[in-house]
Specification:
Radius of gyration: 20 Å
Largest sheet: none
Distance between the termini: 12 Å
Number of helices: 11
Shape: globular
C-alpha cells in the first residue's frame, strides 16, 4: 500500500513538473528572432539529446532499443511547425490546440474545436523595438538584415495565417500524441518470451536516451536537407542559440518527468493530465505577459474549454487510481 502511495505521489509530482515546464519551455524564444525555425529546431534538439545523455549515464546505460527512436522521429517531425505556429496564432493558442489534439484519444478531445474560435492578437512585426526579450540581448554594431526575422509565414494574410497556424497545430498535436507508441510497444512485448523485445525494461525512463537520439538524428537530417534546399546558405540566427538551448533543456527535463509519470501512474493516467495542463500554463503566458488573447468573449471561450479539458483529464486519472 505504501509503495502504491509512493508511486502516486511521485507520479503526480512528476506530472506537475512536466506541465509547468512544457507550458513554459517556448517562452524564452517568444520575443527572439527565430526566422523559419529550422536552425532553432536543431539547437533545441541538441539540448534535448545532451540532457538525455546525462540521464542515460545516471541510469548506467540501460539497453538501447533502436525502435524507441521512432517516437523521437515522430516528435521532431511535429516540432518543425512550432515556430510558424507561434508566429501565426501565438504561443498560448498554439499550445492549446496542439495539446488538445495531443490528447485526442482522451475524453478531452472534443474541446479542441472550441479553441479555433478564440482569436489571438499577433502583431505583424513580431520583432519590433517595442518588445523586450525575456533574456538580455546584446546590441552589436554589425550591419544586419532590416527584416531579420522574415519568413514565409510573414507573407500570409490574416485569414490564411490563422488557417495555416491552426492546421499546423492540429498536425503537430497528432504527431506529438504518437511519440510514446514505440516505447509502449517495446514494453508490452518485453513481457513475452517469444518476442524479439523479450526482457526489455519496464521502467520508462530507460528509453529516454533512445527517444531523444531519434529526436536529434531526425532534426539533423531535416536541417541538412534544409541547408541543401537553401543552396548551402541557411538562415542562421546567433541570438536564438542560448534561448533555444534553454528551451531544449526545459523540454528535456519535462520529458524525463513525463517518462517517470508514465511509469508511476501508467500512460493511461499521465497522458491526459500532462497533455491538458501545459495549454493552461501557456495560455496564462499568452494572456498576462504576451497579450495574445484578449477580450471577454475569448476569455469565456477559453475558460469553458479548460473546464471540459480539466473534467476529462481528472475523470481519466481518478478512474485508474
Amino acid at each position: 500500500m505504501s509503495d502504491n502511495g509512493t508511486d502516486l505521489t511521485t507520479g503526480f509530482i512528476s506530472s506537475s513538473a512536466a506541465i509547468l515546464l512544457f507550458g513554459s519551455n517556448y517562452v524564452p524564444l517568444k520575443k527572439y528572432n527565430t526566422g523559419d525555425g529550422m536552425f532553432l529546431q536543431w539547437v533545441l534538439c541538441a539540448a534535448i539529446w545532451l540532457v538525455a545523455l546525462v540521464a542515460n549515464l545516471i541510469l548506467r546505460c540501460p539497453k538501447f532499443w533502436p525502435f524507441a527512436m521512432v517516437g523521437g522521429c515522430i516528435w521532431a517531425t511535429g516540432n518543425i511547425a512550432v515556430v510558424p505556429i507561434i508566429k501565426t496564432i501565438g504561443l498560448g493558442l498554439g499550445l492549446l490546440i496542439w495539446g488538445s489534439f495531443n490528447a485526442l484519444t482522451g475524453w478531452a478531445s472534443s474541446s479542441a474545436f472550441i479553441f479555433f474560435f478564440i482569436k489571438s492578437e499577433i502583431p505583424n512585426n513580431t520583432y519590433s523595438v517595442d518588445t523586450a526579450p525575456l533574456m538580455t540581448e546584446h546590441v552589436t554594431d554589425e550591419i544586419q538584415d532590416p527584416c531579420p526575422g522574415h519568413s514565409w509565414v510573414d507573407n500570409l494574410s490574416t485569414v490564411h495565417s490563422r488557417a495555416v497556424g491552426c492546421s499546423l497545430a492540429v498536425i503537430s498535436g497528432i504527431l506529438y500524441g504518437s511519440t510514446f507508441v514505440p516505447v509502449i510497444y517495446i514494453k508490452d512485448h518485453g513481457k513475452r518470451n517469444d518476442s524479439v523485445y523479450s526482457g526489455a525494461s519496464q521502467y520508462d525512463l530507460d528509453y529516454v536516451f533512445a527517444h531523444s537520439s531519434g529526436i536529434f538524428l531526425t532534426s539533423t537530417v531535416y536541417f541538412l536537407a534544409y541547408c541543401i534546399t537553401m543552396k548551402n546558405n541557411p538562415k542562421l540566427y546567433p541570438e536564438a542559440v542560448l534561448p533555444g538551448f534553454l528551451s531544449g533543456l526545459l523540454w528535456a527535463i519535462a520529458s524525463c518527468c513525463w517518462f517517470i509519470a508514465n511509469h508511476s501512474l501508467s500512460a493511461v493516467v499521465s497522458f491526459p493530465i500532462i497533455t491538458a495542463g501545459p495549454g493552461f500554463v501557456a495560455a496564462m503566458w499568452g494572456v498576462f505577459v504576451f497579450k495574445e488573447i484578449q477580450g471577454q468573449q475569448n476569455y469565456l471561450l477559453m475558460i469553458f474549454a479548460f473546464c471540459i479539458i480539466l473534467t476529462g483529464a481528472l475523470c481519466t486519472a481518478f478512474s485508474k487510481v
